[in-house]
Amino acid sequence: MEDNNTNKRKLTTASGRPYAEHENTQSVGSRGPLLLQDFILHEKMAHFNRERIPERVVHAKGTGAYGTFKVTHDISKYTKAKIFSKIGNECKVFLRFSTVGGEKGSADSERDPRGFAVKFYTEDGNWDLVGNNTPVFFVKDPKKFSDFIHTQKRDPRTNLKSPTMMWDFWSLNPESLHQVAILMTDRGTPFSYRHMDGFSSHTYSMIDKDNKRVWVKFHFKTQQGIKNFTGPEADAMRTTDMDHSQRDLVDAIDRGDFPRWSLKIQVMTEEQAKTFRWNPFDLTKVWPHAEFPLIDAGVLELNQIPRNYFAHVEQSAFAPSNTIDGIGYSPDKMLQGRILSYADAHRYRLGVNYEQIPVNACPFMINNYHRDGHMRIDGNGEEGPNYYPNSFGDVVPDESYKEPAWELESNVADWYDRNAGPGDDDHYTQPGDLFRKVLDEEGKRNMINNIVGAMSGITGPKRDKIINLQLCHWFRADIGLGMAIAKGLGVDVDQAMPKQHS
Ligand code: NDP
Predict the structure, then answer these.
(1) Is residue 1 predicted with pLDDT exceeding 90?
(2) Active-site residue, 4 included
(3) Of the segments 21-25, 346-350, 364-368, which one has the largest average pLDDT value?
(4) Measured over all CA atoms, what is the biggest interatomic distance in the chain, rounded to whole angstroms?
(5) In terms of CATH, what superfamily is 26-150+189-362?
(6) What's the pTM?
(7) Of 18, 279, 378, 385, whose CB count within 10 A is highest?
(8) Pick the catalytic residue: 59, 202, 219, 346?
(9) DSSP characters for 390-420?
(10) Tens of pLDDT along 139-179?
């Protein structure tokens, strides 16, 4: 509503009534009590009291931007997804970056994985790849997730972060070693969100036009180049600028320096999966590049900071369950858990109709029989039938979207035996390879220093037990790495390690 005299917009109540006064409350004389009838006061106070929505339990601190994804290479032989049907296809995207363990006000330069969650607004529906800046994760069964995250949060008594809790959990869960190893390199403290890679981490599937399936992993490789803080630099940045990554992204986009990532895929056939030496659906393992080379697919560019942070970033909701025709799930147990838990978290945090919030809404077709619920704002199916099957409407399932059936290897249902399969108890080869083959001398030195620094924070009566158990894992990954950490911690290896009996 515009005021013709001043060209300024009129201040109104939430219901739209222009309001005359916004700073002084109605009162009985200048020294008297306030009047209950000044409902603007109530409206202001009541709305303010309700400004905060629940903080995300994980990935609370984050920032995001809109952009575009463009297909640059033909991968249509693997997938019938329309977005990949020809080179040059484009769609809008929204990407939210985050740290994982810290609260909303925590520092961007903490040693932590970084979230890398992308929403592709495609004509076949919204496709979410909800990944991290690392290709693996700490656990491979979702039942362990909440226990793990508790160790990254605050001690129940002291309300302080606790290296003792973290290393206790990691030492008792050797499957975490690969992710912990990556976290302890300088990639655990990226310089900014623009200078890191992103990974689907999970194995997904692609389905071609003949309904044939391959397994895929998605990699976003930064075109800005990898740039990290060393441990001491990250510590210093925590006190210089808590919001360094947020500022870096906003400043870059505002000056027209749009960050880009190349989207690449790794492909494994169903036959290859049967003989691969590790479980290809184990989230603690990567697929070596030499055997499964990266295949170019497209380029993602971020070019617009949302006009309002809360509306777009805080209310953004990503779910690995959001796939599109031609891209499907895999038996990755962590993916299976996340298919359930992400949408559930959003229903709790934002409400059951969270997918109607503009940043989450599919800009193309949405038809279903969901009705009602808090904050339903899209017409609620209008006068159409609210049940199925029915004789009146035209909203029906289409069998052509059916995915090919999965052939499973076992028909025995039991608790997941996490070390039963070939290579399942090999938690050591891949972190060892990272140390031996990938890191240069400086990278190795920094990793060792970061581990020694982090493990030095372990305290209390179980300190020696935790340190010794974790040292065993480092030794099994690489003897030289283990020795260097033991030396840095001042541990006498002959005393600490269990004796070998011949
Ligand atoms: P390659 O030599 O082909 O690739 C090494 C990979 O390691 C590259 O993707 C590189 O990323 C990445 N890398 C470099 N430094 C670090 C670091 N500090 N932390 C995490 N990743 C890093 O080797 P392989 O494919 O045979 O894998 C060897 C090891 O590399 C694995 O055991 C795993 O630890 C790590 N790795 C493997 C990945 C994969 O998908 N195969 C992905 C990421 C890590 P960049 O190209 O950006 O330099």
Answers:
(1) no
(2) no
(3) 346-350
(4) 96
(5) Catalase core domain (2.40.180.10)
(6) 0.95
(7) 279
(8) 59
(9) -SS------GGGPPPPPPPS-----S--TT-
(10) 999 999 999 999 999 999 999 999 999 999 999 999 999 99
